[in-house]
């Protein structure tokens, strides 16, 4: 989800009678697993950063940190929902100040800052990404071991009715795509509604981005020559696409959408940060990049002006970092 918001709500919710546990500033500031080692206040886009924190599987939560890396707010998932964090523990601040978040293989929730559920949609076939559309509908994907009979994208109305869906099989059940399977057939991990009414989809296993029209027909495919296990494409104001790419090294790419050419790239050389799965354009032109163990803010000239990383957290296997590291981050400026 790719938005910069002016109001911060950070929490996770359960529909049942399990309360959320909030942690006070004084308690969380004592935690030492986060450290900031680079910060240029004159060049960084100052604010707080929203992060899904899953480094401790016994205490998955959403945290808000300031530019010094101090946790200023957090919400813990209740015990019965702790297992619903992979793949893709996604959250988004809505314009009304509520938070919309997705618990993979469980459902999508909208809550107030106080933790009251104002909307929910349970669906075990959801993962990775959910967006609230201007018309009030919610758009989300399913790529967690999806098969050819599954809808990889759904749009639902506020009352939970499916009003639009996309099945990859209608376009891609043919060579070279038909026999692919890697944590699902498509492992679709992101969706964005475009200004022209079409929908941009990221079927990760197909190593490309797909624009489909209202009838679900693919009208454009981008990146087949250079994308590999891409994540979370963002449509920029100039029409280009910003996307995290899992080639070696992991890179953030800006793609000229009209030509398909790469016009900017930033390699993330820290191998411990693999995989890099998110990049957001900030209002000052900087890019916020999320890897498994570090989050960077870089200028267009590729200067690091802010870096926060996991300090003292060790993962036994590379796949542990993929499941327990950072997934997405969101810079937020408070004006309320």
Structure characterization notes:
The chain has 336 residues and is mainly beta. The protein has one domain (21-332): 7 Propeller (Methylamine Dehydrogenase, Chain H). The protein has helices spanning 25-28, 169-172, 318-324; strands at 21-22, 34-39, 48-53, 61-65, 71-76, 90-93, 99-103, 107-111, 117-122, 127-132, 138-141, 153-156, 162-166, 188-193, 199-203, 209-212, 218-222, 231-235, 241-245, 250-255, 262-268, 278-281, 287-290, 294-298, 304-310, 329-332. Strand 16 and strand 17 (218-222) form a beta hairpin. The protein is globular and about 50 Å long. Mean pLDDT is 88; it is low at 1-30.
Please give the oligomerization state of what you see. single chain
* Shape estimate: globular
CATH architecture descriptor: 7 Propeller
Number of domains: 1
Structural class: mainly beta
CATH class: Mainly Beta
Strand order of the largest sheet: 1-5-4-3-26
Helix/strand layout:
Blueprint: E1 21-22, H1 25-28, E2 34-39, E3 48-53, E4 61-65, E5 71-76, E6 90-93, E7 99-103, E8 107-111, E9 117-122, E10 127-132, E11 138-141, E12 153-156, E13 162-166, H2 169-172, E14 188-193, E15 199-203, E16 209-212, E17 218-222, E18 231-235, E19 241-245, E20 250-255, E21 262-268, E22 278-281, E23 287-290, E24 294-298, E25 304-310, H3 318-324, E26 329-332
Short description:
With 336 residues, the chain is mainly beta. The chain has helices at 25-28, 169-172, 318-324; strands at residues 21-22, 34-39, 48-53, 61-65, 71-76, 90-93, 99-103, 107-111, 117-122, 127-132, 138-141, 153-156, 162-166, 188-193, 199-203, 209-212, 218-222, 231-235, 241-245, 250-255, 262-268, 278-281, 287-290, 294-298, 304-310, 329-332. The protein has a five-stranded antiparallel β-sheet with strand order 1-5-4-3-26. Strands 2-25-24-23-22 form a five-stranded antiparallel β-sheet, with no helix packed on it.
